Every structure is written in structure tokens, then in C-alpha cells.
Amino acid sequence: MKSASLLAIVLSLSFARAAASAQIEKVRFSVSAISIAEIPFKIAQVKGFYREEGLNVEAILIRGAVGLQALIGGSVDYTSASGSTIAAAVRGLPVKLVFVSSAKPQFDLVAQPQIRSVQDLKGKIVGISSRGGSIDLLTQMILEKNGLMPNKDVTSIVVGGQEDTALALRAGRIAAALLTPPRPLVLQREGFNRIAYSGDYMPTYPTGGIGVTEEKIKTNPSEIVAFVKASLKGLQFARQNRAESMKIIAEYLGVKDPVLNEQIFELYLSRLSADGSADESWMRGAIEFTKKSLGVTKEIATRQVFDFGFIEKANR
């Protein structure tokens, strides 16, 4: 009798495990770069927050604009390329930004040791990742606000992703470039200069987030709520668990120096989104900046670009 009862329990547990396994949904998430903007998602993955919400998330490193194309083409379910998502939505493509990791740009303008200010870039070459991308647009804005005309006073060349850009700077191929942490902090230790922070020029522009298609919003809103909820847990975890978050960040970014890791963490906290959403004025600012960069003149409603309703649902 005891054996039969034990067998029943074992079978019951086996079926429960099989049911739980069947409920785990595989999703693909394109991330733009290994940077502090992606940390909420990494924490959520390491701590098992996605699995708690029934998701098995595969993070795939794909550069911004290409990641957006993969999203529209259905190769991935979500993208962290927030700037590319906003630009696509402004152009009328069926995508929306539903979560913001950082409500400010993460990029710092880092220059060669002999260059002390943005004005010193006159006649020099700056590096960008692609034409028309967020790095290109933010670089142009910084130059213009310092009295320099892009592509006349300063030449821009495409050098690739963040690691390629840092290598180009070290090799002397370019005079300056916008880089995300931890790269500016590492380069400053090597003698390079941080001459501008993009957030001082454009405060209403995100770095990192969750972009989705309107088709996904229509057909699987519950999955989006689950993905947003787990990402929110990752965002909030850092504020409440300093030591463990710093350990995750060090491993993720490959930082071995504890002093440097603490600097990165403090910088991360200072630029972290409050709750993954943004107010109306912030959304309008991001749209207007994007419209100007794309040459779009027609009025664009915030609901065409953003849908932070999933954050409200996740919080409930």
C-alpha cells in the first residue's frame, strides 16, 4: 500500500514538472550591445525572473538597426534597440516601445588625450556605428551645440560597434566617439578624455528598452506583460541588492577591478529609469528629436510610438 502511495506521489510530481516545463515559453530578445543599458535584462535572466513568469529568454547580440529589422521580420520577439524602435515608429512602421531601461542616453563622448573640448574636434574625424542611428544623431547634436557643423567642420566615419569603436580610438584612427559604460571609464584610465555627456544635450532619449511589434501586442499581450514584469524585477533588483548586483555586473561586463566596478555601478544607478516608463513631456521630446533627425514634419501622436500600459499591468 505504501509503495502504491509513493508511486502515486512520484507520478504526480513528474506530471507537475512536465506541466511546468510545457508552460515555459521560448522567446528571442535582441540586445544592442553589452553595456549598462542592458543590465536589467541580464539581472532578470541571472536571477530567474523570466522563468518565474513562464519565459525562457534567449538573448542575441544584434546591433540596433539590424535588431529592429529582425524584430519586424519575426526573427526575434523583442529588441532592446530603443532608439531604432522610436525611429521606426515615427516613420510609420508597426512597432512600439513598451519599456525604458534608462530615460537618458548612456553615451559619453570620449576623445584622444590631446583633445580637451568638443571645439577641439574641428578638422578631426569622429567614429559612429551607422549612418542615421542614435549615435550618429547624438554626435551631430553635440557638435552643432558647440558651434561645429557635422560633415564640414568634423568628418564622421562608420567604424562599427562599441568594441570596434574603442579599438579605433586606441589605434588613433578617430579623434573621438560616443561610447557606453564601462568603456569611457576604462579609456579615461588610459589617458583619454571624456569631453561631453550626451544626456546634457538630449535628456529625453532612451538607451535600452523593450521594443515590440503591434502584431505581438494584438496576438500575445500576456507574454509582453510577463516579459515587462520580469524586466521590471531586474531593474528594481539593483537598487535593493547592491552587492549581488555588482557581482552580476562585473561578470557581465568582464570587469575585474572592484574600484572600476563600483564606479560603473554608481553610474548605472544615476541613469536608471525610475519604473521603466516615461511621462508625456519626455515622450514628446523623444519624438520631436527623432522627427528632426529623420526630416519628418507631420504630427506624431505619442500612442503611435509608446505603449507603457504593459508596465501598469505588470505592476498590478
Q: What would you note in describing this structure?
A:
With 316 residues, the chain is of the alpha/beta class. The protein has 2 domains: 22-104 and 205-241 and 271-315, 3-Layer(aba) Sandwich (D-Maltodextrin-Binding Protein, domain 2); 108-200, D-Maltodextrin-Binding Protein, domain 2 (3-Layer(aba) Sandwich), CATH 3.40.190.10. Helix content is 50%, strand content 16%. A 5-stranded mixed β-sheet has the order 7-6-8-5-9, with helices on both faces. Strands 2-1-3 form a 3-stranded parallel β-sheet, sandwiched between helices. A two-stranded antiparallel sheet has the order 4-10. Strand 6, helix 6 and strand 7 (155-158) form a beta-alpha-beta unit. Helix 10 crosses helix 11 (242-253) and helix 10 (221-240) crosses helix 15.
